[in-house]
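Closing statement on the heme C sub-project.
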Amino acid sequence: MNNSEETKAHLKLARLVIRLGVLVFVFSILWLLQNSLYPTIFEASTEIVRIDSTAIEEEYVPIRTLDSTDVENGIHLPTGLIVDVGCQEVMTTCGACHSLDLVTQNRATRDGWKDIIVWMQETQKLWDLGPQEDVILDYLAKNYAPENSGRRKNLTNIEWYPLN
Ligand code: HEC
């Protein structure tokens, strides 16, 4: 290596170091800016969210249709749920912990469904459903009501015992 080649190599290295330095500097300025601005942005946005969510609570509009091609004869095939107002809410909320078979295989009145929800809240860590509770209860009470065919079906496979 002659002298001029060595100088060139040094210069190259120096330029690289300077570029890296500039990059680090720019990023630390950005980082500082972001950190000092973040609290105000954050406060501002939680404020907005809080106001928005009370607005939503007052006029919660249930989702009417499932945006899905999986619906056949009014049944959402992947879950088995009857497609109706509130179906989407039941799917996301009630499907979070267990199969929706637990829903589709049960029948209850509105009060009965409410009891099931309260039971899950007390024993299974189900959260407060907020404004969705009414939507969910309406859906369940309408679509999974006790089957009322006038009179119950005849009992089968019963071992009768003689009355004395
Ligand atoms: C936080 C979790 C969680 C969520 C969310 C949840 N459940 Fe459950 N649920 C459970 C657990 C745990 C069981 C007991 C499962 C078992 O016995 O295997 C259960 C059981 C049930 C049962 C059967 C009750 C019985 O008497 O055997 C029904 C019906 C039910 N859930 C309906 C719902 C409905 C409707 C929703 C939506 C509003 C819902 N679940 C949301 C946790 C949850």
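Residues 93-94, 96-98, 102-103, 106, 116-117, 120, 124-126, 136, 140 surround heme C (CB under 6 Å). With this model delivered, the sub-project is considered complete and its resources will be redirected to Aim 3.
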